Amino acid sequence: MSGPSKTLSYECPKCKTVNVPKGKALTVALTCKSCGVYFCPHSNINDKFSEKRDPAIPIGSRGTFEGKTYEVLGYVLKLEKKHRYKWSEYFLFSPYHGIAFLSEYGGNWNFLTPYANHLWLSDRKALQDPYAMGQAFKLYAKYNAAVLYAQGEFFNDTIAVTEDSKHWEHIAPPYILTFEQSNTVTGSFLGKYISPKDVASAFKMPAGKLPKKDGMGYTEPILGNFTPVALVAVSIVALMAAFVINIVFNNMTTEESVYQNTYTQLELKDSVKMISTPSFELQKTTAVSVQVTAPLDNDWFYAEYSLINEVTGEEQEFSGEISYYRGTDSDGSWSEGSKTTDMFLSSVPAGKYHLDIYPEFSGKNNYFHIAVYRNAAFSGNIWLLAIGLCVFPAIYFTYRHYKEVARWEDSDYSPYETDDD
Amino acid sequence: MSWDNFKGLRWYMVTVLMALSFFAYSQSIGWLWVGSTKTKPPADQVGGARGTHGGYRYLHHK
Fold first, then answer.
1. Are A306 and A316 in contact (CB under 8 A)?
2. A29 and A38 in contact (C-beta within 8 Å)?
3. What's this model's pTM, rounded to 2 decimal places?
4. Predicted local confidence at residue A288, as pLDDT
5. Are A356 and A274 in contact (CB under 8 A)?
6. ipTM greater than cut 0.85
Protein backbone atom coordinates (compact mmCIF):
# COMPACT_ATOMS: atom_id res chain seq x y z
CA MET A 1 0.00 0.00 0.00
CA SER A 2 1.37 3.38 -0.88
CA GLY A 3 0.29 6.84 -2.00
CA PRO A 4 0.47 10.47 -1.15
CA SER A 5 -2.60 10.47 1.13
CA LYS A 6 -4.52 8.08 3.34
CA THR A 7 -6.63 7.02 0.37
CA LEU A 8 -6.07 3.35 -0.34
CA SER A 9 -3.92 2.98 -3.43
CA TYR A 10 -1.76 0.42 -5.13
CA GLU A 11 1.42 0.96 -7.07
CA CYS A 12 1.78 -0.83 -10.38
CA PRO A 13 4.62 -3.34 -10.11
CA LYS A 14 5.61 -2.59 -13.68
CA CYS A 15 5.28 1.15 -14.35
CA LYS A 16 4.93 2.29 -10.72
CA THR A 17 1.74 4.22 -11.49
CA VAL A 18 -0.41 4.69 -8.41
CA ASN A 19 -3.87 3.17 -8.82
CA VAL A 20 -6.75 4.05 -6.48
CA PRO A 21 -9.25 1.18 -6.37
CA LYS A 22 -12.94 2.09 -6.31
CA GLY A 23 -13.66 -1.08 -4.40
CA LYS A 24 -11.28 0.12 -1.68
CA ALA A 25 -10.19 -2.71 0.60
CA LEU A 26 -12.44 -5.20 -1.22
CA THR A 27 -10.31 -4.96 -4.34
CA VAL A 28 -7.97 -7.94 -4.52
CA ALA A 29 -6.78 -7.66 -8.13
CA LEU A 30 -6.68 -4.84 -10.63
CA THR A 31 -5.15 -3.70 -13.86
CA CYS A 32 -2.91 -0.68 -14.00
CA LYS A 33 -4.70 2.34 -15.43
CA SER A 34 -1.47 3.31 -17.18
CA CYS A 35 0.20 0.19 -18.56
CA GLY A 36 -2.69 -2.30 -18.23
CA VAL A 37 -0.75 -4.96 -16.37
CA TYR A 38 -2.86 -7.18 -14.12
CA PHE A 39 -1.65 -7.52 -10.54
CA CYS A 40 -2.66 -8.61 -7.08
CA PRO A 41 -1.09 -6.21 -4.57
CA HIS A 42 -1.10 -8.67 -1.69
CA SER A 43 0.36 -11.65 -3.48
CA ASN A 44 2.64 -9.97 -5.98
CA ILE A 45 1.03 -11.91 -8.81
CA ASN A 46 0.99 -10.05 -12.07
CA ASP A 47 0.24 -10.91 -15.64
CA LYS A 48 0.35 -9.40 -19.09
CA PHE A 49 -2.23 -10.30 -21.65
CA SER A 50 -1.58 -11.46 -25.18
CA GLU A 51 -4.98 -10.24 -26.33
CA LYS A 52 -6.54 -6.87 -25.82
CA ARG A 53 -10.17 -6.02 -26.18
CA ASP A 54 -11.90 -2.83 -25.17
CA PRO A 55 -15.07 -3.54 -23.21
CA ALA A 56 -18.27 -2.49 -24.95
CA ILE A 57 -19.39 -0.99 -21.64
CA PRO A 58 -16.54 1.18 -20.34
CA ILE A 59 -15.17 0.63 -16.83
CA GLY A 60 -16.79 3.13 -14.48
CA SER A 61 -20.16 3.11 -16.28
CA ARG A 62 -23.20 2.98 -14.06
CA GLY A 63 -26.18 0.83 -14.94
CA THR A 64 -29.50 0.15 -13.22
CA PHE A 65 -30.86 -3.39 -13.08
CA GLU A 66 -34.05 -4.34 -11.29
CA GLY A 67 -34.02 -0.89 -9.70
CA LYS A 68 -30.48 -1.27 -8.32
CA THR A 69 -27.62 0.84 -9.61
CA TYR A 70 -24.25 -0.81 -10.10
CA GLU A 71 -20.90 0.46 -11.33
CA VAL A 72 -18.79 -1.51 -13.78
CA LEU A 73 -15.55 -2.20 -11.92
CA GLY A 74 -14.01 -4.87 -14.12
CA TYR A 75 -14.10 -6.56 -17.47
CA VAL A 76 -12.82 -10.05 -18.34
CA LEU A 77 -12.59 -11.81 -21.68
CA LYS A 78 -12.72 -15.56 -21.09
CA LEU A 79 -12.01 -18.60 -23.20
CA GLU A 80 -13.67 -21.98 -22.85
CA LYS A 81 -10.78 -24.39 -23.12
CA LYS A 82 -12.46 -27.32 -24.84
CA HIS A 83 -14.53 -25.70 -27.57
CA ARG A 84 -12.41 -22.51 -27.69
CA TYR A 85 -15.26 -20.01 -27.64
CA LYS A 86 -14.88 -16.61 -25.99
CA TRP A 87 -17.24 -14.54 -23.93
CA SER A 88 -17.16 -11.34 -21.91
CA GLU A 89 -17.92 -10.77 -18.28
CA TYR A 90 -18.48 -7.43 -16.60
CA PHE A 91 -17.94 -7.24 -12.86
CA LEU A 92 -20.47 -4.88 -11.26
CA PHE A 93 -20.49 -3.48 -7.75
CA SER A 94 -22.81 -1.44 -5.62
CA PRO A 95 -21.92 -0.49 -2.02
CA TYR A 96 -25.61 -1.04 -1.19
CA HIS A 97 -26.48 -4.12 -3.23
CA GLY A 98 -23.17 -5.99 -3.48
CA ILE A 99 -21.71 -7.59 -6.55
CA ALA A 100 -23.26 -8.73 -9.82
CA PHE A 101 -22.11 -9.84 -13.25
CA LEU A 102 -23.13 -9.17 -16.81
CA SER A 103 -22.03 -11.88 -19.20
CA GLU A 104 -22.14 -11.48 -22.95
CA TYR A 105 -21.73 -14.09 -25.66
CA GLY A 106 -22.67 -13.48 -29.28
CA GLY A 107 -24.47 -10.28 -28.39
CA ASN A 108 -26.69 -12.10 -25.89
CA TRP A 109 -26.59 -11.02 -22.25
CA ASN A 110 -27.26 -12.46 -18.80
CA PHE A 111 -27.42 -10.51 -15.56
CA LEU A 112 -26.22 -12.60 -12.61
CA THR A 113 -26.15 -12.10 -8.87
CA PRO A 114 -24.78 -14.38 -6.12
CA TYR A 115 -27.10 -17.23 -5.22
CA ALA A 116 -26.66 -18.79 -1.81
CA ASN A 117 -29.46 -21.36 -1.84
CA HIS A 118 -28.00 -23.91 -4.21
CA LEU A 119 -28.90 -27.42 -3.26
CA TRP A 120 -25.50 -28.91 -3.81
CA LEU A 121 -23.47 -26.82 -1.42
CA SER A 122 -23.59 -29.43 1.34
CA ASP A 123 -21.41 -31.91 -0.49
CA ARG A 124 -19.75 -29.28 -2.70
CA LYS A 125 -20.77 -31.10 -5.80
CA ALA A 126 -22.89 -29.83 -8.66
CA LEU A 127 -26.09 -31.68 -9.41
CA GLN A 128 -26.83 -32.69 -12.96
CA ASP A 129 -30.25 -31.05 -13.06
CA PRO A 130 -30.87 -28.91 -9.97
CA TYR A 131 -34.23 -27.49 -9.02
CA ALA A 132 -34.13 -23.89 -7.85
CA MET A 133 -36.39 -20.85 -7.71
CA GLY A 134 -39.30 -23.06 -8.73
CA GLN A 135 -37.51 -23.94 -11.95
CA ALA A 136 -36.04 -27.22 -13.13
CA PHE A 137 -32.59 -26.38 -14.44
CA LYS A 138 -30.79 -28.49 -17.03
CA LEU A 139 -27.06 -28.82 -17.30
CA TYR A 140 -25.97 -26.89 -20.38
CA ALA A 141 -22.21 -26.68 -20.05
CA LYS A 142 -19.40 -27.98 -17.87
CA TYR A 143 -16.02 -26.52 -18.66
CA ASN A 144 -12.66 -25.11 -17.67
CA ALA A 145 -11.87 -21.57 -18.69
CA ALA A 146 -8.96 -19.21 -19.10
CA VAL A 147 -8.76 -15.45 -18.89
CA LEU A 148 -7.58 -13.87 -22.13
CA TYR A 149 -7.87 -10.29 -21.02
CA ALA A 150 -8.90 -8.30 -17.98
CA GLN A 151 -9.39 -4.65 -17.25
CA GLY A 152 -10.45 -2.82 -14.11
CA GLU A 153 -10.56 -4.26 -10.64
CA PHE A 154 -11.84 -7.42 -9.00
CA PHE A 155 -12.67 -8.70 -5.56
CA ASN A 156 -10.69 -11.88 -6.15
CA ASP A 157 -7.79 -12.97 -8.29
CA THR A 158 -10.06 -13.50 -11.25
CA ILE A 159 -7.37 -15.17 -13.37
CA ALA A 160 -6.51 -17.75 -10.73
CA VAL A 161 -10.12 -18.37 -9.70
CA THR A 162 -11.19 -18.78 -13.33
CA GLU A 163 -8.39 -21.10 -14.31
CA ASP A 164 -8.42 -23.21 -11.15
CA SER A 165 -12.16 -23.74 -11.16
CA LYS A 166 -14.49 -26.16 -12.80
CA HIS A 167 -17.59 -24.40 -14.10
CA TRP A 168 -21.13 -25.70 -14.41
CA GLU A 169 -23.89 -23.82 -16.16
CA HIS A 170 -27.51 -24.88 -15.80
CA ILE A 171 -30.34 -23.22 -17.65
CA ALA A 172 -34.09 -22.90 -17.33
CA PRO A 173 -34.63 -20.12 -19.87
CA PRO A 174 -34.66 -17.25 -19.28
CA TYR A 175 -32.80 -18.18 -16.08
CA ILE A 176 -29.25 -19.43 -15.68
CA LEU A 177 -27.68 -20.97 -12.61
CA THR A 178 -23.91 -21.15 -12.53
CA PHE A 179 -21.65 -22.99 -10.18
CA GLU A 180 -17.89 -22.78 -9.95
CA GLN A 181 -15.62 -24.75 -7.71
CA SER A 182 -11.92 -24.81 -7.09
CA ASN A 183 -9.84 -26.09 -4.23
CA THR A 184 -10.29 -22.80 -2.43
CA VAL A 185 -13.46 -21.21 -3.81
CA THR A 186 -17.03 -22.30 -4.31
CA GLY A 187 -19.51 -19.92 -5.81
CA SER A 188 -22.92 -19.87 -7.39
CA PHE A 189 -24.80 -17.23 -9.34
CA LEU A 190 -28.38 -16.98 -10.50
CA GLY A 191 -29.00 -14.97 -13.63
CA LYS A 192 -31.59 -14.06 -16.17
CA TYR A 193 -31.43 -13.27 -19.86
CA ILE A 194 -31.47 -9.58 -20.59
CA SER A 195 -31.98 -8.19 -24.06
CA PRO A 196 -29.29 -5.97 -25.63
CA LYS A 197 -31.87 -3.20 -25.71
CA ASP A 198 -32.39 -3.47 -21.95
CA VAL A 199 -28.62 -3.53 -21.34
CA ALA A 200 -28.23 -0.36 -23.39
CA SER A 201 -31.16 1.19 -21.58
CA ALA A 202 -29.70 0.24 -18.18
CA PHE A 203 -26.46 2.08 -19.01
CA LYS A 204 -28.20 4.87 -20.97
CA MET A 205 -26.03 4.16 -23.97
CA PRO A 206 -26.85 3.54 -27.64
CA ALA A 207 -27.64 -0.11 -28.36
CA GLY A 208 -25.43 0.18 -31.44
CA LYS A 209 -22.34 0.34 -29.21
CA LEU A 210 -22.99 -3.16 -27.88
CA PRO A 211 -21.84 -6.28 -29.75
CA LYS A 212 -24.22 -7.21 -32.54
CA LYS A 213 -26.59 -10.01 -31.63
CA ASP A 214 -25.57 -13.17 -33.41
CA GLY A 215 -28.13 -15.94 -33.17
CA MET A 216 -30.20 -17.07 -30.26
CA GLY A 217 -28.89 -16.72 -26.73
CA TYR A 218 -28.86 -19.95 -24.78
CA THR A 219 -31.07 -18.43 -22.10
CA GLU A 220 -33.08 -16.26 -24.46
CA PRO A 221 -36.85 -16.64 -24.08
CA ILE A 222 -38.32 -18.19 -27.20
CA LEU A 223 -41.42 -16.13 -27.63
CA GLY A 224 -42.75 -13.64 -25.16
CA ASN A 225 -42.38 -13.50 -21.43
CA PHE A 226 -44.36 -16.56 -20.39
CA THR A 227 -43.81 -20.19 -19.56
CA PRO A 228 -45.17 -23.13 -21.60
CA VAL A 229 -47.10 -24.26 -18.52
CA ALA A 230 -48.81 -20.88 -18.38
CA LEU A 231 -49.84 -21.17 -22.03
CA VAL A 232 -51.21 -24.67 -21.47
CA ALA A 233 -53.09 -23.47 -18.39
CA VAL A 234 -54.65 -20.52 -20.24
CA SER A 235 -55.59 -22.73 -23.18
CA ILE A 236 -57.23 -25.38 -20.99
CA VAL A 237 -59.20 -22.73 -19.08
CA ALA A 238 -60.26 -21.15 -22.39
CA LEU A 239 -61.41 -24.51 -23.80
CA MET A 240 -63.33 -25.28 -20.62
CA ALA A 241 -64.96 -21.83 -20.74
CA ALA A 242 -65.94 -22.40 -24.38
CA PHE A 243 -67.63 -25.71 -23.62
CA VAL A 244 -69.35 -24.27 -20.54
CA ILE A 245 -70.73 -21.38 -22.65
CA ASN A 246 -71.89 -23.90 -25.25
CA ILE A 247 -73.66 -26.03 -22.62
CA VAL A 248 -75.28 -22.96 -21.08
CA PHE A 249 -76.71 -21.77 -24.41
CA ASN A 250 -77.82 -25.28 -25.36
CA ASN A 251 -79.72 -25.53 -22.08
CA MET A 252 -81.19 -22.03 -22.39
CA THR A 253 -82.69 -22.66 -25.81
CA THR A 254 -84.42 -25.82 -26.99
CA GLU A 255 -85.10 -26.66 -30.58
CA GLU A 256 -88.77 -26.01 -31.27
CA SER A 257 -90.92 -26.89 -34.25
CA VAL A 258 -92.69 -23.86 -35.70
CA TYR A 259 -94.26 -25.54 -38.69
CA GLN A 260 -94.52 -28.96 -40.29
CA ASN A 261 -96.69 -30.53 -42.94
CA THR A 262 -96.75 -33.11 -45.70
CA TYR A 263 -97.29 -32.00 -49.28
CA THR A 264 -98.13 -33.97 -52.41
CA GLN A 265 -97.48 -33.24 -56.03
CA LEU A 266 -101.19 -32.62 -56.48
CA GLU A 267 -100.96 -29.44 -54.41
CA LEU A 268 -98.71 -27.70 -56.92
CA LYS A 269 -100.42 -24.81 -58.55
CA ASP A 270 -100.41 -25.10 -62.30
CA SER A 271 -99.12 -21.64 -63.05
CA VAL A 272 -96.06 -21.34 -60.79
CA LYS A 273 -95.51 -24.91 -59.58
CA MET A 274 -95.17 -23.59 -56.06
CA ILE A 275 -96.39 -24.46 -52.59
CA SER A 276 -96.71 -21.72 -50.00
CA THR A 277 -96.77 -22.60 -46.31
CA PRO A 278 -98.88 -20.85 -43.69
CA SER A 279 -97.20 -18.14 -41.63
CA PHE A 280 -95.03 -18.98 -38.66
CA GLU A 281 -93.38 -16.82 -36.06
CA LEU A 282 -89.72 -16.50 -35.06
CA GLN A 283 -89.73 -14.72 -31.70
CA LYS A 284 -86.05 -13.79 -31.70
CA THR A 285 -83.07 -13.89 -33.99
CA THR A 286 -82.20 -17.54 -34.23
CA ALA A 287 -80.79 -20.35 -36.32
CA VAL A 288 -83.51 -22.05 -38.36
CA SER A 289 -83.47 -25.64 -39.45
CA VAL A 290 -85.56 -26.83 -42.39
CA GLN A 291 -85.86 -30.60 -42.40
CA VAL A 292 -87.22 -32.31 -45.53
CA THR A 293 -88.07 -36.00 -45.71
CA ALA A 294 -89.34 -37.98 -48.70
CA PRO A 295 -90.13 -41.72 -49.02
CA LEU A 296 -87.39 -42.31 -51.56
CA ASP A 297 -86.35 -45.67 -52.93
CA ASN A 298 -83.78 -45.48 -55.70
CA ASP A 299 -85.07 -41.99 -56.23
CA TRP A 300 -84.36 -38.30 -55.67
CA PHE A 301 -86.18 -35.21 -54.59
CA TYR A 302 -85.11 -31.62 -55.19
CA ALA A 303 -86.64 -28.32 -54.17
CA GLU A 304 -85.85 -24.65 -54.03
CA TYR A 305 -87.07 -22.71 -51.04
CA SER A 306 -87.67 -19.07 -50.32
CA LEU A 307 -88.01 -17.94 -46.71
CA ILE A 308 -89.97 -14.71 -46.82
CA ASN A 309 -90.25 -12.15 -44.04
CA GLU A 310 -93.83 -11.00 -44.36
CA VAL A 311 -93.17 -7.62 -42.74
CA THR A 312 -90.03 -6.50 -44.54
CA GLY A 313 -90.44 -8.60 -47.68
CA GLU A 314 -86.85 -9.81 -47.40
CA GLU A 315 -86.26 -13.26 -48.82
CA GLN A 316 -83.58 -15.89 -48.44
CA GLU A 317 -83.44 -18.45 -51.22
CA PHE A 318 -81.86 -21.83 -50.79
CA SER A 319 -82.16 -25.28 -52.26
CA GLY A 320 -81.64 -28.88 -51.28
CA GLU A 321 -81.58 -32.28 -52.89
CA ILE A 322 -82.00 -35.65 -51.28
CA SER A 323 -81.48 -38.99 -52.90
CA TYR A 324 -81.50 -42.56 -51.73
CA TYR A 325 -80.31 -45.56 -53.73
CA ARG A 326 -79.87 -49.18 -52.78
CA GLY A 327 -79.19 -52.50 -54.43
CA THR A 328 -77.14 -55.66 -54.27
CA ASP A 329 -73.91 -56.69 -55.92
CA SER A 330 -71.26 -59.33 -55.46
CA ASP A 331 -70.36 -57.85 -52.06
CA GLY A 332 -73.95 -57.98 -50.86
CA SER A 333 -76.50 -55.28 -50.37
CA TRP A 334 -75.57 -51.61 -50.47
CA SER A 335 -77.21 -48.27 -50.05
CA GLU A 336 -76.19 -44.64 -50.40
CA GLY A 337 -77.70 -41.28 -49.72
CA SER A 338 -80.50 -40.46 -47.33
CA LYS A 339 -84.24 -39.99 -47.28
CA THR A 340 -83.95 -36.81 -45.26
CA THR A 341 -81.92 -33.61 -45.22
CA ASP A 342 -81.41 -30.72 -42.83
CA MET A 343 -80.83 -27.22 -44.11
CA PHE A 344 -79.57 -24.66 -41.63
CA LEU A 345 -80.21 -20.94 -41.95
CA SER A 346 -77.90 -18.77 -39.88
CA SER A 347 -79.11 -15.97 -37.67
CA VAL A 348 -82.60 -15.40 -39.08
CA PRO A 349 -84.06 -12.17 -37.61
CA ALA A 350 -87.24 -12.31 -35.52
CA GLY A 351 -90.48 -11.86 -37.45
CA LYS A 352 -93.40 -13.45 -39.24
CA TYR A 353 -92.36 -15.74 -42.08
CA HIS A 354 -93.63 -18.25 -44.59
CA LEU A 355 -91.87 -20.57 -46.98
CA ASP A 356 -92.42 -20.76 -50.71
CA ILE A 357 -91.40 -24.20 -51.95
CA TYR A 358 -90.61 -25.05 -55.56
CA PRO A 359 -90.37 -28.86 -55.59
CA GLU A 360 -89.21 -31.09 -58.41
CA PHE A 361 -90.44 -34.66 -58.33
CA SER A 362 -88.81 -37.50 -60.21
CA GLY A 363 -92.10 -39.05 -61.17
CA LYS A 364 -91.90 -42.07 -58.87
CA ASN A 365 -92.24 -40.22 -55.57
CA ASN A 366 -95.03 -37.68 -55.26
CA TYR A 367 -94.91 -36.31 -51.75
CA PHE A 368 -92.56 -34.93 -49.09
CA HIS A 369 -92.66 -33.84 -45.47
CA ILE A 370 -91.23 -30.53 -44.31
CA ALA A 371 -90.53 -29.35 -40.74
CA VAL A 372 -89.21 -25.95 -39.70
CA TYR A 373 -87.44 -25.55 -36.34
CA ARG A 374 -86.31 -22.43 -34.53
CA ASN A 375 -83.40 -22.44 -32.03
CA ALA A 376 -81.88 -25.09 -34.23
CA ALA A 377 -79.11 -26.99 -32.47
CA PHE A 378 -75.72 -26.73 -34.14
CA SER A 379 -72.25 -27.77 -33.06
CA GLY A 380 -70.00 -26.32 -35.75
CA ASN A 381 -69.17 -23.16 -33.79
CA ILE A 382 -67.85 -24.89 -30.69
CA TRP A 383 -65.60 -27.20 -32.65
CA LEU A 384 -64.32 -24.36 -34.80
CA LEU A 385 -63.64 -22.32 -31.66
CA ALA A 386 -61.90 -25.28 -30.01
CA ILE A 387 -59.68 -25.71 -33.06
CA GLY A 388 -59.02 -21.96 -33.11
CA LEU A 389 -58.02 -21.97 -29.45
CA CYS A 390 -55.53 -24.74 -30.16
CA VAL A 391 -53.90 -22.98 -33.13
CA PHE A 392 -51.63 -20.62 -31.21
CA PRO A 393 -50.45 -23.27 -28.69
CA ALA A 394 -49.82 -25.70 -31.58
CA ILE A 395 -47.79 -23.13 -33.53
CA TYR A 396 -45.97 -22.04 -30.37
CA PHE A 397 -44.96 -25.54 -29.29
CA THR A 398 -43.85 -26.48 -32.81
CA TYR A 399 -41.80 -23.28 -33.05
CA ARG A 400 -40.53 -23.80 -29.53
CA HIS A 401 -39.33 -27.30 -30.34
CA TYR A 402 -37.24 -26.09 -33.25
CA LYS A 403 -35.84 -23.19 -31.24
CA GLU A 404 -35.04 -25.48 -28.32
CA VAL A 405 -33.13 -27.79 -30.63
CA ALA A 406 -31.23 -24.74 -31.90
CA ARG A 407 -30.61 -23.54 -28.32
CA TRP A 408 -28.99 -26.82 -27.35
CA GLU A 409 -26.93 -27.22 -30.51
CA ASP A 410 -23.80 -25.85 -28.81
CA SER A 411 -24.22 -27.95 -25.69
CA ASP A 412 -22.63 -31.31 -24.94
CA TYR A 413 -25.71 -32.11 -22.86
CA SER A 414 -28.48 -31.55 -25.38
CA PRO A 415 -31.65 -33.51 -24.59
CA TYR A 416 -32.34 -33.58 -28.32
CA GLU A 417 -30.85 -35.97 -30.79
CA THR A 418 -28.42 -34.29 -33.14
CA ASP A 419 -26.68 -35.31 -36.33
CA ASP A 420 -23.56 -35.95 -34.28
CA ASP A 421 -25.30 -38.65 -32.23
CA MET B 1 -47.13 -20.12 -10.52
CA SER B 2 -46.84 -16.36 -10.38
CA TRP B 3 -48.29 -13.64 -12.57
CA ASP B 4 -44.80 -13.21 -14.08
CA ASN B 5 -45.31 -16.49 -15.91
CA PHE B 6 -48.43 -15.11 -17.60
CA LYS B 7 -47.27 -11.56 -18.36
CA GLY B 8 -46.28 -12.40 -21.93
CA LEU B 9 -49.71 -13.90 -22.53
CA ARG B 10 -51.63 -10.68 -21.92
CA TRP B 11 -52.58 -10.17 -25.55
CA TYR B 12 -53.28 -13.85 -26.09
CA MET B 13 -55.63 -13.82 -23.11
CA VAL B 14 -57.34 -10.67 -24.43
CA THR B 15 -57.74 -12.40 -27.82
CA VAL B 16 -59.13 -15.51 -26.14
CA LEU B 17 -61.63 -13.42 -24.16
CA MET B 18 -62.72 -11.67 -27.36
CA ALA B 19 -63.11 -15.03 -29.12
CA LEU B 20 -65.18 -16.40 -26.22
CA SER B 21 -67.35 -13.27 -26.19
CA PHE B 22 -67.89 -13.51 -29.95
CA PHE B 23 -68.73 -17.19 -29.55
CA ALA B 24 -71.30 -16.42 -26.84
CA TYR B 25 -72.82 -13.67 -29.00
CA SER B 26 -72.98 -16.04 -32.00
CA GLN B 27 -74.67 -18.72 -29.91
CA SER B 28 -77.23 -16.20 -28.65
CA ILE B 29 -78.35 -15.21 -32.16
CA GLY B 30 -77.85 -18.57 -33.86
CA TRP B 31 -74.98 -17.37 -36.04
CA LEU B 32 -73.54 -20.45 -37.68
CA TRP B 33 -69.86 -19.94 -38.54
CA VAL B 34 -69.84 -23.12 -40.60
CA GLY B 35 -72.38 -25.60 -41.91
CA SER B 36 -75.16 -23.19 -42.82
CA THR B 37 -77.00 -23.76 -46.07
CA LYS B 38 -75.96 -21.41 -48.81
CA THR B 39 -78.58 -18.75 -49.29
CA LYS B 40 -78.95 -15.80 -51.60
CA PRO B 41 -81.35 -12.91 -51.88
CA PRO B 42 -83.69 -13.20 -54.83
CA ALA B 43 -82.93 -11.34 -58.02
CA ASP B 44 -85.49 -8.64 -57.33
CA GLN B 45 -83.70 -7.73 -54.09
CA VAL B 46 -80.31 -7.33 -55.73
CA GLY B 47 -81.40 -5.12 -58.60
CA GLY B 48 -82.93 -7.79 -60.80
CA ALA B 49 -86.47 -8.08 -62.01
CA ARG B 50 -88.90 -7.86 -59.11
CA GLY B 51 -91.22 -10.78 -58.67
CA THR B 52 -89.08 -13.45 -60.28
CA HIS B 53 -87.67 -16.62 -58.84
CA GLY B 54 -85.42 -18.68 -61.03
CA GLY B 55 -87.27 -18.91 -64.30
CA TYR B 56 -90.58 -18.29 -62.64
CA ARG B 57 -92.50 -15.10 -62.37
CA TYR B 58 -94.60 -15.43 -59.32
CA LEU B 59 -95.31 -12.07 -57.60
CA HIS B 60 -96.40 -14.00 -54.59
CA HIS B 61 -96.56 -12.20 -51.29
CA LYS B 62 -99.11 -12.67 -48.62
1. yes
2. yes
3. 0.68
4. 95
5. yes
6. no
